[in-house]
Design brief:
The chain is mostly helical. It folds into two domains: 13-74, no CATH class; 89-212, no CATH class. It is 38% helix and 9% strand. It is built from seven helices and five strands. It has helices at 2-15, 27-31, 59-74, 89-105, 121-135, 195-205, 209-212; strands at 47-48, 56-57, 113-118, 161-167, 190-192. It has a three-stranded parallel β-sheet. It has a two-stranded antiparallel sheet with strand order 1-2. Strand 1 and strand 2 form a beta hairpin. The longest helix is centred in the middle third of the chain and has 17 residues, at 89-105. The radius of gyration is 25 Å and the shape is globular.
């Protein structure tokens, strides 16, 4: 009986000889990863708010966990070569590209101005203002202020400005948060109560009064 148990244990150990122990990852391999630039956690979506009473974790929280795990395993800081998502400009470029493709498919001209509605000053408004900064540059000289990549195909990019509209139905609560000029990237073009009021603002700004009166 004892011999049988011993044989079973030996077979079990043999079966797992090829398993990889994550604590034994070659540190030299990790250290030789391609050098990539880091980003600030302060401009990732750590929280968002929908139907819940309080803001919930967003993808920024996942990145924070990922960076901590990587640091604990490798001893090195996790660095990034590219980001897709707010507040990085490439996401706004993609949105503009899709909008122009839809416009052209329906016989409409390309857009000249982007209006971005968001509820988070730290991400939505920062991103929209960063995009407006990008749009002020000549098309062939545009450089991301975040330091990350932009779309290589600019054939569907035509806007020359972007307005940021902050609404009060999400992360931003005007009774609890005050915006000041200490960080101009967080200051929106305008603040509206909700998306409905934001859309009305856009319609009036574009002189489509007849739609508002319907």
């Amino acid at each position: 009986m004892e011999n049988q148990e011993s044989n079973d244990q030996d077979e079990a150990l043999s079966d797992h000889e090829d398993d990889v122990d994550i604590t034994m990852i070659d540190e030299e391999f990790l250290q030789n990863d391609a050098e990539i630039s880091s980003t600030s956690k302060k401009i990732t979506d750590l929280v968002f708010k929908a139907a819940a009473d309080l803001p919930r974790f967003g993808h920024g929280a996942f990145l924070t966990c990922l960076e901590t795990l990587y640091k604990g395993i490798s001893g090195n800081d996790l660095k990034y070569t590219a980001f897709v998502g707010k507040p990085f400009e490439i996401s706004y470029q993609y949105a503009e590209t899709i909008a122009n493709q839809i416009a052209l498919a329906n016989g409409q001209p390309k857009i000249e101005k982007v209006y971005f509605i968001g509820d988070n000053p730290d991400v939505d408004i920062v991103g929209a203002n960063m995009y407006n900064h990008l749009l002020q540059q000549a098309m062939n000289l545009r450089t991301s202020i975040s330091g990350y990549s932009l779309l290589s195909d600019s054939s569907f990019l035509s806007a020359t400005s972007c307005e940021s509209i902050l609404v009060c139905t999400g992360v931003y609560e005007p009774n609890k948060q005050k915006l000041d000029g200490k960080n101009p990237w967080k200051v929106p073009t305008t603040i509206k109560l909700d998306v409905f009021e934001a859309v009305k603002y856009i319609i009036l700004k574009e002189a489509w009064q007849w739609i508002v009166n319907c």
